[in-house]
């Protein structure tokens, strides 16, 4: 029994790791090509429809200096999951600005995960299971043990950096 379970776990792990990164599909909801599932930052920022807004918005966004000073004091080894849609206007605006904040914080790129969703806010292979994604983009901050610390959903209440600071300030 243990051998069968071990083999099953190995096969599942191989399927997850073999998942195509930066996969493109045609989304019937928006009738356009989109990214789906796990993506790299390069895949996101070079996807044609996303790139047209990404470059100018990223360059133009200037995070609040005082907020960034406070954030830098609190950042340790957390992880951030960005769930977004390449078709989504809010994602096209907030993902570049959020990445500008992370870059200015020197946040470790290896600790940022990108998941693209279709027009129904779904991805394949269960990679969104348990995340309860209702709107995109959703920025989820986790501690180093994988416990969710907080989220920014769709857009910030104040600014991205201020909302991120609020998440870090309530961290235990």
UniProtKB/TrEMBL annotation:
<dbReference type="Pfam" id="PF14595">
    <property type="entry name" value="Thioredoxin_9"/>
</dbReference>
<dbReference type="InterPro" id="IPR036249">
    <property type="entry name" value="Thioredoxin-like_sf"/>
</dbReference>
<feature type="signal peptide">
    <location>
        <begin position="1"/>
        <end position="18"/>
    </location>
</feature>
<protein>
    <submittedName>
        <fullName>Thioredoxin</fullName>
    </submittedName>
</protein>
<keyword id="KW-0732">Signal</keyword>
């Amino acid at each position: 029994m243990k051998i069968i379970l071990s083999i099953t776990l190995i096969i599942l792990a191989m399927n997850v790791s073999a998942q195509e990164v930066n996969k493109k599909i045609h989304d019937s909801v928006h009738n356009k090509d989109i990214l789906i599932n796990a993506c790299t930052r390069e895949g996101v920022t070079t996807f044609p429809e996303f790139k047209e807004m990404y470059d100018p918005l990223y360059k133009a966004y200037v995070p609040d200096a005082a907020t960034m000073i406070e954030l830098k004091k609190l950042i340790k080894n957390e992880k951030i999951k960005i769930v977004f849609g390449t078709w989504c206007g809010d994602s096209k605006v907030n993902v570049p600005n959020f990445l500008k904040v992370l870059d200015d914080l020197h946040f470790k790129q290896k600790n940022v995960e990108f998941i693209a969703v279709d027009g129904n806010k779904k991805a394949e292979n269960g990679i969104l299971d348990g995340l309860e994604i209702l709107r995109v983009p959703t920025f989820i901050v986790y501690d180093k043990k994988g416990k969710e610390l907080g989220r920014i959903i769709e857009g910030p209440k104040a600014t991205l950096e201020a909302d991120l600071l609020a998440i870090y300030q309530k961290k235990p």
